[in-house]
Amino acid sequence: MARPGTRNEGTSKATRPRAAGATTRRGARPRLAKAGKHVYFFGGGKADGDRTMRDLLGGKGAGLAEMTRAGLPVPPGFTISTDVCALFYAQGGRVPDAVEREMAAGLERLEKLAGARLGASDGPLLLSVRSGAKFSMPGMMDTILNLGLNDETVEGLKARTGNGRFAYDSYRRFLQMFGSVVLQVPKDAFDQKFESVKRLRGARLDTDLDEQALRDVVVEYQHVVRQHTDREFPQDPREQLRMARDAVFSSWNNPRAIEYRRIYEIPDDIGTAVNVQTMVFGNTGERSATGVGFTRNPATGAKEFYGEFLVNAQGEDVVAGIRTPQPIRELERLMPEAYAQLREYTSTLERHYQDVQDFEFTIEDGRLYMLQTRSGKRTGYAAVVIATDLVDEGVVEPRQALLLVEPASLSQLLAPVFDPAAWKAVAVATRGLPASPGAACGQAVFSADEAVRWSEHGKRVVLVRKETAPDDIHGMYVAEGILTATGGMTSHAAVVGRQMGKPAVVGAGGLSIDEAGRTLRIGDQTIGEGDWLSFDGLSGEVKIARIATRPSEILQVLAGEMRPESSDIHRRFTRLLEWADRERRLEIRANADLPDQAALAYAFGARGIGLCRTEHMFFGEDRLPIVQRMILSQREADRRQALAELLPLQREDFYGVFKAMHGCPVTIRTIDPPLHEFLPKREEVMVDIARLEAAGKTGRELEEKLALLRRVEQLHEFNPMLGHRGVRVGITFPEITEMQARAIFEAACRLAREGQAVVPEIMIPLVSDVRELRDQKAIVDRVAAEVTKAHGVEIPYLVGTMIEVPRGALTADSIAREARFFSFGTNDMTQLAFGFSRDDIGKFLPAYRQKKILERDPFASLDVEGVGELVRIAVEKGRRARPDLALGVCGEHGGDPSSIHFFEEVGLDYVSASPYRVPVARLAAAQAALKTRVGD
Amino acid sequence: MARPGTRNEGTSKATRPRAAGATTRRGARPRLAKAGKHVYFFGGGKADGDRTMRDLLGGKGAGLAEMTRAGLPVPPGFTISTDVCALFYAQGGRVPDAVEREMAAGLERLEKLAGARLGASDGPLLLSVRSGAKFSMPGMMDTILNLGLNDETVEGLKARTGNGRFAYDSYRRFLQMFGSVVLQVPKDAFDQKFESVKRLRGARLDTDLDEQALRDVVVEYQHVVRQHTDREFPQDPREQLRMARDAVFSSWNNPRAIEYRRIYEIPDDIGTAVNVQTMVFGNTGERSATGVGFTRNPATGAKEFYGEFLVNAQGEDVVAGIRTPQPIRELERLMPEAYAQLREYTSTLERHYQDVQDFEFTIEDGRLYMLQTRSGKRTGYAAVVIATDLVDEGVVEPRQALLLVEPASLSQLLAPVFDPAAWKAVAVATRGLPASPGAACGQAVFSADEAVRWSEHGKRVVLVRKETAPDDIHGMYVAEGILTATGGMTSHAAVVGRQMGKPAVVGAGGLSIDEAGRTLRIGDQTIGEGDWLSFDGLSGEVKIARIATRPSEILQVLAGEMRPESSDIHRRFTRLLEWADRERRLEIRANADLPDQAALAYAFGARGIGLCRTEHMFFGEDRLPIVQRMILSQREADRRQALAELLPLQREDFYGVFKAMHGCPVTIRTIDPPLHEFLPKREEVMVDIARLEAAGKTGRELEEKLALLRRVEQLHEFNPMLGHRGVRVGITFPEITEMQARAIFEAACRLAREGQAVVPEIMIPLVSDVRELRDQKAIVDRVAAEVTKAHGVEIPYLVGTMIEVPRGALTADSIAREARFFSFGTNDMTQLAFGFSRDDIGKFLPAYRQKKILERDPFASLDVEGVGELVRIAVEKGRRARPDLALGVCGEHGGDPSSIHFFEEVGLDYVSASPYRVPVARLAAAQAALKTRVGD
């Protein structure tokens, strides 16, 4: 069994085979930008840039350079680098003169290579000007095609091609794009004119218009521009080029691009490149076409050529839906030669890039040009299929395949899914935060007790609550999914939902819930108890309907309901994660409180429990009354009596958890929540009393309520998160710690006698000073000695602490002298570092996101700058004081891929994630190890 | 006007004269302990130690060494150093052999010098064995006198002195002390025997017993020892010495010593020394005596010889109260020669130590011996009188005088006082935390409104509440004092009490308050509205009575009710603080929200406002309804309308505050509390609704309550301290920041036109990320430009931030790029660093104090290790990013002397304290500067 404390010694990991020198992907180390160089040429089989330069050239620019180098037919051009975008904004929307000069030189070189000049009246050079950031932002930024046309050059184009219709079609497209994008003329104004010309001519399709009709369109368009801008359409092609370039840079900050970056967490400061490229034309006639495709099916991963195209069209026509494109297979029939070339080129690209490619092409008079290639986006399911196939085909090695799957997307393979057609058929009623993936469909209930009652009658229910609390657990457990009106991505409903693998949509502000009245309003629709609801935990969409779902195959296999051999995806999933296990350095543990959760975590590959929350064991139906009796006791003796009743129950839980983990380490946290969480809410008791008094009731019922209120008042806290909880409970009620330690060691002794090794790790929460830990450790040590002596068994164990309070991190050196391990509680640490209550953050988080004050929810993805600094301080101070200190993380961030990357860098020993996130963590840890090694 | 931003440049401070080389007090640099040396001899005019070695020798040991060196008649002996105490405990209650050997050598030297041997049957050497820690802990640890006596040596003593009564009196004393202290025989057992012998002999006083009677006592005492210990009294003097020494070391950890250290915040690990000294005898007859005294009156500071003595007695008789001692003046009559010597020696000691001395002496057969000298404890009043007198007498320089006054004790000079005799006459009913010094006496009221009503009828009231809240301010303002059942030293009642200079006793757990029923129970007494209560904010004692008070003279002078010339103490107080101003480096500002507070702060010597809390301006009667209307508005336009009504009111406040500060900097904090603080409490509204519903009421009243509840529910927070407050309010409601900025700049413009310079410093609270500050700064800058343009006036201003959130400290470098100043909000920082809510800490703080997990309340005295680390990080990162960053502190710690010492060390520019703490801060800052310079 690998112990976290032995990371520097020989462990199971150290014996793993590792291919020598195989730590970097071929050519993956990026080339450096050349100082002062901003314009990167490509053409004639040579390119200044290459695929590694996505930071500088954007995805499109790097792809064009790479394809040019590989000898593929790419129209020549140059890329203006992303750092010019920053300069452009820094200078108030102006490109520096040095860049203007570089660009002029690039243009000259392009004219030479193309044998045509921009603005030449005989056979002019025409250009496309397109955006291209490091990360694909499809359709968000602007593009100009056919640049260089004016009243004179259009005639030159006609003369050169002998195709007047083509020339004027290109000109009217240019006028429209330039007019709307650069000159800000409403697109509508052009569309109206175009439609009126089509009407006049009785044309159905754009292609039905002849040269004369298109000439009329050009005249009308120029009129539109004059009307809206009070000036003539710019006729100077060099001025057109400068204006188009600046418009592309400006489009980086258009509202839809900003919103897109917010959603996909793309940094705002990386900027876009501008690609200036010689035009090729898919609209010269029936031997021309334009299209897009994937080398494999991005939805299923199947190895099939996938895409669509349009004959006699330009690029944007395909996506704009003006005409319905044809499936790409039909290209083979229409243009067999070009099709064969395309298959060959794209297969080459897939092998070259060692990944599925998403490409764009144009065929001009039968000649194929490649216009873009990039890694194709895919579903989680497809990602796993593709990664394993590429290994089997010998295209990539397993460690490369690991980098082809987005860790978070693995959750998709575990969640039940809606039948896609049935889902599409119903409209979205409202949206919330997609807190826990999966499809939930059931009858609405509004309390945990109702959920249990309905489910006992064999009903499928979804639990709808304003928010959930620990005493809703039993209802959450039986529900198909959880839907709440308030709370964020780490609210109780979200955390428990993910831990249980239940779909959850939380913080759906559009819900107006009357829990007492058992109704829910969404807009003007009212949903009562028993009405059907469906929601998708991956999209956050909520629908008022019963929509069919099906369980994930992988879970069916894990549950023994399906044989492993009959599930292709289970086999692939397992292989991929085994590869991941070979590469990762971080150990993976799970947060699991009960034996069934522990067993599931083990099945998912967790080799240890990083967080077993003992208080969840207190909420069982058979336990809560005893717990309440303990809390209401005024005397220690009464408390001890109640604790004595809890002891065997908790011992049984620990026994089950230990057993389920087959000898792997189990970290048990002593009691953490404030005691009032186990009692009814203060305002509820107050209202009850007010009702009794108003009804003139006196006597025993009122007396009891008043007594309860007194105790609840005593325990009431203004800020429970900062109150009497964590180690503070153990210090004021040492008998609770004592009972818990006893239950742990008695369970361990029983297992030891049964021949199973157990190493309990006892974790004291919320420590801010070493003396708190010392106090609790003394109790644990004493009980351990008593129990092991009584049983005549030696139980090795560790006592450690959570580091979750800033002061704990800041004084980690003194704490490490008492603690054998630290487990970072990054949830609480985030709350305390920011001073944000995660239950209250909903009030201002939307404004913070909208104003770009917070780019990401720090409860979902670790704040590396602030919270991460505390982690770094604690790691450094802790290891200095105790070199063999074991370090892990058990906050929600333990299952978040980008946070895992940070934990790898900072050198933790393990991460602990909720069971359903264990596969995600295994893969993310492998990627972090690979990337960190590359970055060394 | 000195600006905090210019600390490294020439400021008003830099021009102050400073005597060259005068940074250390004579001989104040401590000598170092010699490695391996543990026993320090003194005698024959020479001593191994001296006054600087209090750490090692304890106060008594250092004093004995110093007096010996000064040639005073000190019985010779040796001191076993404090580090042996640590060794003693580390070795399980054993002194290391090396120390035993050193001690034996010391004893041999002592025997030589004394010309007598321990245990010699003819004229034996007798010893005293006494404790002595660095800090005086009177009566807490153990003492043995007359050691060396046994059945044989007592006869030798008789033979040598020819005084059998004396010899047996000494022996019975030794048996009793050794028996009870070392052998743990109950003291009672000896007392009973002694009384029975006295009864038998018909003796009234101890001195009435003759030799034979005392011989009987000795026999009886030995019998008592045999009975209780099952062994004979140890007859070997060397064994007696070892046992006595170990008993003294053990007494360091007796319960009363531990409790004493807890109360007086003396560290547990410094240990005690043991002083072994040749006995001299005050009990040899009528020409012998023993006594204690002070060189000046420690209560009033008057220059008068002060003390008491007993003839024919040993030391402990004076304090034990067996006989009533005589005033020391009478010694002049009885033993004029010894008295003259004593006056001379103690005067010498006062000049030598440059401070009032508290001394012990014994006269043996007319010969004076000095047994102890140390600085005398004194009241705040006496401290000021003595310090100024010593300067006038040329004994000390002003900068030395500053070190003779405990800064916190200055508060005593400002608080109203009870008539001492009247106070003593009434029993203490209960106790609470002494939160704000002063004597409060008034009729009990249980709500702020009642307080106002009663005071309008000319009644003096004390406000009794479970706890206070911002909406109690008006009641607190009119009350004589504030008494609460819950809350700690920085609870609302405590903070406001100090700020208002109102006596406050808080967290008095013995109070059982029924606010609705307007009664208070203490034990079995019930106090109703209008009953008289008195309490003392300096001791925390509460009494059920009307007890006369009188206001402090200094406040009478400040209020213009007394002419400065007629107040001696005001003149001294002012002089002392002027000396302090010459020495301190830290600027002193005040926390003041309203013009009258600002004026008071200025009178107390604050030269700037470090924290003007704008929300306190919202709680006025004329304002709260407008504020509530703003909060209940759903639309921005309605909010703006309400804010427009608040604008002139707030502008008037700022105008008044600016004016009161005469051009000194004024730091104004934008809105900080969560908005729900301005609305009724959620549970109150819920109870109202329950009552209305139960009464069958419908209609408008219920509707309005329900609407109010909805908004209150929306604003309700689980953890308000971590919720929607501080900069978060300004970000979500930018119109509030805008109004506040407008009020500030309009007020500044008005003053500027009137010819007064104003430099507003606008402070954004609770910043955790630079982008929050940037957002609010943009609003302030825009409004500043608008207002100053409209008024045609230039207003210099600074925008800065509070550093109170850990993440703010951790990212101080990026924040400093936007902030001109940081003001440390150490209250919130303490809450967040520990994860302690100061409102909830009462639930576990007692256990933490008792278990020694926390030695001090971190809200009263800055936690240097953890919170201080955040301050250091922020100072370092902030100054690195902006070298001229101004740094201050505005948390409660700004008025705490030990915290001020830390702020001096860490290099802040200013501290800001509540007005009544400004004098304390001035003095503490001077001491910190002096001590830091010494420590350089």
UniProtKB/TrEMBL annotation, chains A, B:
It is an enzyme of class 2 (transferase). Its EC number is 2.7.9.1. The keyword Membrane does not apply. InterPro entries: ATP_grasp_subdomain_1 (IPR013815), PEP-util_enz_mobile_dom (IPR008279), PEP_util_C (IPR000121), Phosphohistidine_dom_sf (IPR036637), PPDK_AMP/ATP-bd (IPR002192), Pyruvate_phosphate_dikinase (IPR010121), Pyrv/PenolPyrv_kinase-like_dom (IPR015813), Pyrv_kinase-like_dom_sf (IPR040442). Signal peptide: none annotated. Residues 459-540 form the PEP-utilising enzyme mobile domain. Substrate binds at R613, R669, E804, G825, T826, N827, D828. The active site is at H492 (tele-phosphohistidine intermediate), C890 (proton donor). Residues 572-928 form the PEP-utilising enzyme C-terminal domain. Residues 94-328, 334-388 form the Pyruvate phosphate dikinase AMP/ATP-binding domain. Its cofactor is Mg(2+). It catalyses: pyruvate + phosphate + ATP = phosphoenolpyruvate + AMP + diphosphate + H(+). The keyword Nucleotide-binding applies. Residues 1-29 are annotated as: Disordered. Pfam families: PEP-utilizers (PF00391), PEP-utilizers_C (PF02896), PPDK_N (PF01326). Keywords: ATP-binding, Kinase, Magnesium, Metal-binding, Nucleotide-binding, Pyruvate, Transferase. Belongs to the PEP-utilizing enzyme family. PANTHER family: PHOSPHOENOLPYRUVATE DIKINASE-RELATED, PYRUVATE, PHOSPHATE DIKINASE 1, CHLOROPLASTIC. Catalyzes the reversible phosphorylation of pyruvate and phosphate. This is Pyruvate, phosphate dikinase. It comes from Sulfurifustis variabilis. The lineage of its organism: Bacteria, Pseudomonadati, Pseudomonadota, Gammaproteobacteria, Acidiferrobacterales.
